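Dear colleague,

Thank you for sharing your sequence with our group. We've completed the structure prediction you requested, and as agreed, I am returning the results in plain text so they can be pasted directly into your records. Please verify that the sequence below matches your submission; if there's any discrepancy, let me know and we will rerun it promptly.
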Amino acid sequence: MLKKSYEAFKVTIENKVAHIQMSRPEAMNTMNKAFWNELPEIVGTIDTEALARVIVISSTGKHFSAGMDTTVFTGHRPAGPQDRYVAAEAFRTNVKAIQASFNCMEEARIPVLFALHGGVIGGAIDMITAGDIRWCTKDAFFCIMEINIAMTADVGTFPRLQRYIPEGWVKEMAYTGRRIDAAKAKEIGLVNDVFNSQEDMLAYVMETAREIASKNPVAVTGSKVLINYGRDHTTADTLDYIGIWNAAMFPPPHMAEAFAARAEKREPVFPDLAPVRTEPM
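Please find the predicted structure tokens below.
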């Protein structure tokens, strides 16, 4: 069950669409400790308890997010000298935990849509590339900030961003730390469209989310699973897996309902996804 309130987010669910808003505008929605803990909890709860059929993530204030909160870098560290190799292993393990906070969106059974405005900086690039579809306002800009603070992006930008935009643009952004604007982001395929205002964008994104939510949830989930599978596997392997998927989850009753609804000029009624286990039996 979702909590009544969170430190870094506001969550509402309506018409089978969950809207997660980043809610620290005074801090430019930087990603503090609460952010990293709350995001996978929220997405995981919505997904495993089947509380919605689509997730929309947006933000508040001037910027979508200015990236990692610097307090994350200056948190608790063991006092006194430490073996360099032991420290390196611990760092890697900690990074994997942070990466998992974004993996939850890619692993969710339901689509995750992003509505972006203002600065989408550093860790925010890692974040949005783990979603399914992105839109932005005309004032948006995108920056792989890590190179500007003498580090390498490590939470998901590199394995994911190059799936959406040409490798040359990934490298230019990564090597230089330059911003790209909304028009360029659309041109190279990072976002699907650009809007004049956040209000216009959210209206479109929420309408798209409701349209997705009206479709058969099993078919939507299957589409997400198979698109992601096809991205990482050969055509032959993917076709084989699609055959296996449909052999197991081809839904004649759902299809009959879809045909009947079309004939009767009404909205189809499909069952929601079932809640799934989060703990061992």
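Summary note from our side: The chain is about 45% helix and 15% strand.

Kind regards,
the structure core
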